[in-house]
Amino acid sequence: MSIDPALLAGNRRPLAGYQARHFLWHVEGGIGTITLNRPERKNPLTFDSYAELRDLFERLRHADDVKVLLLHGAGDNFCSGGDVHEIIGPLIQLKAPELLMFTRMTGDVVKAMRHCPQPIVAAIDGVCAGAGAILAMASDLRFGTARSKTAFLFNRVGLAGCDMGACNILPRIVGQGRASELLYTGRALGGEEGERWGFFNRLCAPESLVAEARAMAQELARGPTFANGITKSMLHHEWAMDVDQAIEAEAQAQAICMLTEDFGRAYRAFVAKSKPVFEGN
Prior knowledge:
Order of helices and strands: HEEHEHHEEHEEHHEHEHHHH
Strand order of the largest sheet: 1-2-3-4-6-9
Structural class: alpha/beta
CATH architecture of the largest domain: Alpha-Beta Complex
CATH topology of the largest domain: 2-enoyl-CoA Hydratase, Chain A, domain 1
Strand content: 5-15%
Shape: globular
Largest sheet: 6 strands, mixed
CATH superfamily of the largest domain: 2-enoyl-CoA Hydratase, Chain A, domain 1
C-alpha cells in the first residue's frame, strides 16, 4: 500500500509567491525576508500588520521553500512598536472583551514565531521599542548595532511589562534580574550593553548589519534544516521540562534525526573528506 505524499503534506505550500500587504516579503535561496516597511514612522505595527505577521508565521509551519527567516526594518530603525495613532488611540475606546481579543492576537504572533520550524534571524538597528522589542526577543538570533536602542517600554505607557510573553522569554535571554530592570523601568538597552547582557549575538556596523545577518541566515539555510527545526522545537519545549524529561526528549529527537538522509550525507562527506551538502530530508 502506498501513501500519496500530497495527502500527508496537507496545506503545505510554497511561499515565494506570497504577496504581503503590510510589510515586504521576499524569498530567495531558501531565505524568507520580512521587512517592516514604514521607515518614515520608524516602522510601527498596526492591527493589520500584527494579524498578517501572525498569519504568515503560521503558514511558515507548512512552507517547503523557506528554510530560514530574516527580519529587519526599512531605513535606520527596526520597529517603534504599536502605532500610537492607529493602535494606541483606538485601544483606549475599547471595552475589556475587545481588548482581550487584541492582546491574545498579539500574543499569537509570538506563539507563531516560536512554533514555526525556521530559525529567525533579526537585524536590529536604531529604535526597537514596545512590540518591536518583542519581535526581536521572540527571534532566535539577534544582530544589533552600537546605536540600537531596545526598550520594553510598556511600563512607561501605564501598562504591565508582561506583554506578549516578555516575562517568560526575556529572563531566559538576559537573566531574571536584568529582565526585571528592563520591564519595571522601560528604559532603553543600548547596543553594547545588549551584547554584554546576551540579548544580541553580535554587533555590526549599521551599513553591514543586514548583510551580516543575511550571511548567518545563508549559513543556517545550508545546514540540516530538518534537524535545525528539531533544535528550535526542543529549545522551546524544554523550558517546561526537568533534566530527566529533557534528556529523554532529546534522545528521542536525536534518534529521529539519525533516520534522515542528511545524517547519512554528513557521514559520507566525512569519509570522502568533503563538505556535506544538506537537503533537509
